[in-house]
Amino acid sequence: MDPIKKILLIVDNDEDWLALLERFLQGQGYSVVSTQDYAGAVKAAEKVRPHCAIVDLKLGKEDGLSVCRYIKASPELKHVPVIMLSGLDGLPEGSGCDAFVCKADGVERLLSVLKKVLSRS
Q: CATH assignment of 3-120?
């Protein structure tokens, strides 16, 4: 499917990283909705029904795993793949996300994983 028709939800509390991802993914033809916290992520996910969620592991009070659990537990959203981002190199076992990208690997790696995840959904 053409990326222009794909809506991505990006959740990251780092404003600079969020802006970078927005610009990069919009430049690739994706529609992007972004937010910086758990509450915004839940609200946006319910409203826009994204094709994929890209979520930072560390969000402040709530973590990215909470966003992932919410999406996967929702009957309306459980089909939405979740790509977890982190500055760390790996995730805890049983995270429930569909893919993981270390921020240090860069946006090109994220794009590659995103395309792979979207092709499976």
A: 3.40.50.2300
